Amino acid sequence: MDRGSASSIVYLVGAGPGDPELLTCKARRLIETADVVVYDRLVSDEILDLIPPGVARFNVGKRSGFHPVPQDQINALLAALAAADAPQGRIVVRLKGGDPFLFGRGSEEAAHLAAAGIACEIVPGVTSASGCAAALGLPLTHRGMAEGVRLVTGHCREDAELDFDWQGLADADTTLVVYMGLANIGRIAQRLMLHGLAAATPAVAVCNGTTPRQRHVRATLGTIAAVAGRAEFDGPVLFIIGRTAALAAPGAEVTEGKSADTGYPERTAIAAAE
Fold it and tell me: 91: domain range?
């Protein structure tokens, strides 16, 4: 942005899955030149460390069952920060984990800003599905193993049911990635098995993917809820379910001596599927 302009702008910036080296060049430049940064809980400390000293920061992070700053207040905050008097305009960076338009409510914030007549630009980020899969060494698609990939959120309100096309999701020829699914993975696995996906289907759960705190466990669809529950993850968890999950490197279920009852298959050579 030209700092000589009198107009402020809000950038909805994807911070990626956690590793600062996976930020786009544009995302990093904006973080380092921002006048104010509004960030979520999913943005890693390593990325927050890139914000220059003295830049105003607003933590509006949420977690399951705890929303100290409701979404409508976040929308209003972004608009107010951009509307505040600034002779040369103000760069407001809204940092969101992963990609802002993928389960990040970025579209709601963009719509609110548009309605308020405030300039807004979307800066895409590496989504957790591709970032975590790469960190585990497994492909989301592969010839002969997975012809496609589906992304869903496992989070819903406590009083709501998970409303999916279960028959479509229970497709053995695609990889299923479940974001924010730890609380509901048991129900999700049961529904998938009821609709025909084999209990022996490989599954992986990864927490804090791409960061130094990354931990993951391997299991099967039939055992993933129990195995992930025992892992005592301390952050958001992503689940990858499907044949290609068999290619993940050993995780905490092995290093913690818990491999006996996971049902996880031996690591499969990709060439065997071709």
Answer: 9-123
Q: Which amino acid is at 134?
A: A
Q: In what order do the strands lie in the sheet with 9-14?
A: 56-59, 36-39, 91-96, 9-14, 119-123
Residues 182, 205: Cα–Cα separation, whole Å? 9
Residues 66 and 157 in one domain: no
Question: Catalytic site residue 62?
Answer: yes
Active-site choice (1, 26, 62, 193): 62
Please confirm, yes or no, whether 96 is among the known catalytic residues.
no
Set 19, 35, 145, 180: catalytic member: 180
- Annotated active-site residue 145? The verdict is no
Question: Residue 69 maps to which CATH number?
Answer: 3.40.1010.10
In this structure, what CATH number is given to the domain that contains residue 217? Answer: 3.30.950.10
Q: pLDDT tens, position by position, for the chain (274 residues)? A: 444 445 899 999 999 999 999 999 999 999 999 999 999 988 999 999 999 999 999 999 866 555 578 999 999 999 999 988 766 789 999 999 999 999 989 999 999 999 999 999 999 999 999 999 999 999 999 999 999 999 999 976 665 678 899 999 999 999 999 999 999 999 999 999 999 999 999 999 999 999 999 999 999 999 999 999 999 998 889 999 999 999 998 887 655 444 445 566 655 444 444 5
Spacing of C-alpha 104 from chain mean position: 8
